[in-house]
Design a protein that fits this description.
mainly alpha
Length: about 220
């Protein structure tokens, strides 16, 4: 006969209560979180910088475009006719004019175009302030408002925009009758004029070239 023991389980070693929890391992988890977060943040920052193709500094412009930066103009600058020639912003335009003088060569000598990629970026203010500084330095300056759809220069100077560049290009009015004197010494102004309904052909390159060539005989800076 087989004798079955009364107690089928035998206690070999009694369980003891642990003094600290097995999980979570606080120090290990904190160290892993720090290192993983640090490496992930650095990797994400480099990845975002790799995807960012915007231009942020003057060095970026010179590196990508291959042209020198002539000047740095701060934002939210008002016309110097309001701020005055002693404004803290005027120095930036003086530096710009000085650098332009060193690069002013070739067939387009004396004539400059101020333009931008979109509306509201400050090209009208920059053009006026640059013309203002040139006039302050004793040069005979003609400011031409060639922004036919959004003219601003006549409001800065407080003159009429009834006749101007469009009338000259359409050969309706001689250019001498559209150029106006301003309150700024040495500064003359050619308004844009009202844009006609049929504006096709107004900006004729040949007519503009002839106009600029004739004006350069009378003015130092256009």
């Amino acid at each position: 006969t087989l004798k079955v023991p009364r107690t089928p389980v035998e206690i070999v070693d009694s369980a003891e209560e642990s003094s600290r929890p097995i999980s979570p391992k606080l120090i290990l988890n904190v160290l892993l979180s720090i290192f993983i977060g640090l490496f992930s943040g650095i990797g994400l920052a480099y990845f975002i910088e790799y995807l960012d193709t915007s231009i942020k500094t003057a060095d970026d412009i010179e590196r990508w475009i291959g042209l020198p930066v002539l000047g740095l103009i701060p934002q939210k600058v008002r016309p110097l006719i309001e701020e005055g020639p002693d404004s803290e912003h005027a120095e930036g335009y003086r530096v710009l004019r000085t650098n332009m003088a060193f690069t002013d060569s070739g067939p387009g000598r004396g004539a400059f175009a101020v333009l931008s990629g979109g509306a509201g970026e400050g090209k009208s203010t920059t053009a006026f302030n640059l013309a203002y500084i040139c006039a302050q330095q004793g040069e005979k300056v003609l400011l031409v408002d060639a922004d036919l759809r959004r003219p601003v220069q006549h409001t800065i100077l407080g003159v009429s925009n009834r006749f101007g560049l469009t009338n000259v290009l359409l050969r309706d009015v001689p250019v001498e009758e559209t150029i106006k004197t301003t309150s700024v010494p040495n500064l003359h102004f050619l308004p844009s004029g009202r844009l006609p309904r049929t504006s096709l052909g107004v900006l004729n390159p040949k007519r503009i070239n002839e106009l600029v060539h004739s004006l350069k005989l009378k003015y130092d800076i256009i």
